[in-house]
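A common beginner's mistake is to predict each chain separately and then try to dock the pieces by hand. The better habit, illustrated here, is to supply every component at once so that their relative placement is modeled jointly.
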Amino acid sequence: MKIKHSLFTRRRFLNSMIGGWITAMGTAFLAPIAKFVFPPNKEPDEVLLPKSDYENMEPNTVKLFSWGAKPGILKMNDDRSYTAFVAVCTHLDCNISYLPDQRKFFCACHDGWYDENGINIAGPPPTPLRQLNVAIDEEHFIITKDKGNE
Amino acid sequence: MNKLNIRKWFDDRLGIDEISAFMTKKEIPQHKHTIWYYTGSSILIFFVIQILTGILLAFYYKPTLELANESVAYIVNDVPLGWIIRSIHSWAATFMIALVFIHLLSIWITKAYRNPREMTWISGVLLLVISLAFGFTGYLLPWDELSLAATKVGTDIPRSIPIVGTWVTKLLRGGEDVTVETLSRFFTFHICVLPIFILMLLALHVYLIQKHGSSLPLDIEKKNIPVKSIPFWPNFIYREAIFWLFLLGLLLTIASLFPHHLGSPADLMAAAPEGVKPEWYFLFLFQTLKIFPAKILFIHGDTIAVLLICLMGVLFFCLPIIDNKPAEKKGKIITYAAYVFILYAVIMTVWSLL
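With all components supplied together, the output reads:
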């Protein structure tokens, strides 16, 4: 049925009403679903390591710690200072290891290499390893995010 | 009620006679490329095997950090016949994906996607994507060192896609990193989300094949002479059955002689083991990523590689629309592209294994 002077029929009006309603309902459900499937970010701002566990390291050796869900690597340099890295390759996220005799970090997934300062030197890694700040108080090594290198 | 009446009772309600009449009337053309028609139903056979063995494995598998690897070891070592059920599940995946590739390539080369079968091709490519997703999600579930490292790499790849990439990685992993959240998510994808999609697409795909019938290869269609054909039921099914039996025998032999390896439990903090490789069907992509340099001009090599792979995927998806003049020169070039693709994939796969 079409009323005189009307632009569309009653059937078309009702169809667009139900179509619009279904679309609106669907979209309204999408936003909460999208929110639900992305869990909160669990990267820590700071990690405290008991000093007793890490202070007896030798120069040119490393020890692992947990940086949230990622491994972190604490390395003692030749001058007995400490450097910390997120021990994850900047290429495709594999966990890396330190080879003390070659003084290099190595990623076995795609043959990526970094020097002892975490600078990418060979293979596919596009950027240096992510460095973390190390501070030491009486009881702890305090590992914090490096603001300039996130 | 005698036997005849029982049959009639069901036929009145289900329309069995219509279906069997359709099956007997359906004709399969006989020509030199007929062999390729067998690949479709063989994929279905392996799909059914995957459903059955998958359900059996899910009875014992536990997708948690502590128990994932342990429960697979329990299936393999303690559950009666567990080792062969798991081995069949992983080998049938290999057979199924190999057949999906062969099926699609045969359609590419014989140009069976020509008008009006474009949607059959498109649903087929989506089925390939889902089959690969099944393989990718299933690979993580044993939760051993290699599967963890391969999943870390695989889920990090989308990150190189500008704008949406980081979100895709987060969505797949259930967070920034591959953790137990990823395991739960992959298990849900593997046994719930992907099965729903594959069944829906399979229904569409099979419906379209019935609607349009078997395609004739271009060179035979051009000759315009009548082609011999045989009824689908029982003549063609019986011939297919021989092929299915051969494949089943091969599957069981390989699955019992070479049971799938289970590595030591994944450790989220340990360095990646050497020799990290994805399943064989991802090796050519893995090698492609590996040979790209870290930087091309100012852009990350990975970004370029991933975008190129995505572009190739889109072209592959749109093949019937691009190849709109199959009988002309452009159509021939597109057929040669199939051989170039096969050559590229074989070379890259062999290279990655060296």
